[in-house]
Specification:
about 260 residues; alpha/beta; seven-stranded parallel sheet; two-stranded antiparallel sheet; globular
Length: about 260
């Protein structure tokens, strides 16, 4: 489904700034940090407590407006994941850029914004006051739940007024027998890829799929990751069946994310 991003469950990625601080096991092999450090242009890193976040250029910030106009002409909504190289709701997010982002979201009604965070407890503190009483129709909030230790995030997310709340269970690092699903409208599951990737057991993925589908919640299986369903090391997405679970590609979306614009 992706158009200008390698992330299968969206059309575009928008990174208003780069940089974050690791908070849990799912962050251990953060691809965004590795990539940012590899192509670092400044003399200091953008990662970790106290590190300056790199705010993108004005030209970059104009991209969502272009996507919005294209979506309007096409008569359909376009999905935008924000942000793959930062956390919009982290404590050290640049406040001016954060406020600017809310304005961009409000000015692009034909985009369906997917705001994914590992800090759902901070969403209500950070979003505009008006959004707390009347949720914007083009914003979906998500949180990462990589193992049973992080299920509290799903419960925190349920407190946020939203047209859509979703869970990114990626990288799935262990069994989650009681994944909280109250108020959740979409669940994405995937294994880890890249250097040092950890193996995802098929039993863990099936356990979540069965729980989610039994509640008629859309389920998206993104990938096995660096290892296939037999635990054999592969090359990421460069092998048949990298996104197949029990003989099927699970590519389900919530209706609120794919409805026509207008």
């Amino acid at each position: 489904m992706s158009e200008n991003t390698s992330i299968e469950w969206t059309h575009h990625t928008f990174n208003p700034w780069h940089g974050c601080t690791k908070v849990s096991a799912g962050c251990a092999h953060c691809y965004a940090k590795v990539r940012d450090d590899r192509y670092l242009l400044e003399p200091t890193s953008h990662w970790g407590p106290g590190a300056p976040r790199r705010v993108m250029s004005d030209a970059y910030w104009r991209k969502p407006y272009t996507w919005d106009r294209a979506a309007e002409r096409a008569g359909r909504s376009t999905l935008v994941f924000c942000a793959s190289r930062a956390d919009v709701f982290e404590e050290e997010a640049p406040q001016d850029a954060q406020e600017r982002l809310w304005g961009v979201i409000e000015a692009t009604p034909h985009l369906r914004w997917q705001l994914l965070t590992k800090r759902p407890e901070r969403i209500l503190e950070c979003i505009p006051e008006a959004w707390r009483s009347r949720e914007p129709c083009n914003v979906g909030y998500g949180t990462s739940v990589e193992d049973a230790n992080q299920t509290w995030r799903a419960r925190e997310l349920a407190k946020v007024p939203a047209v859509l709340r979703f869970l990114s269970v990626e990288p799935l690092l262990g069994p989650i027998p009681r994944l909280p699903l109250r108020g959740i409208g979409w669940v994405i599951v995937g294994g880890e890829s890249g250097h040092g990737a950890r193996v995802m057991s098929p039993a863990w993925a099936r356990q979540i799929r069965d729980r989610v589908t039994a509640r008629r919640i859309p389920f998206f299986f993104k990938q096995w990751g660096q290892y296939d369903d037999l635990g054999v090391r592969r090359r990421g997405k460069h092998y048949p069946g990298f996104d197949v679970l029990d003989g099927r590609r699970w590519v389900e979306y919530p209706a609120v994310q794919v409805r026509s614009a207008g």
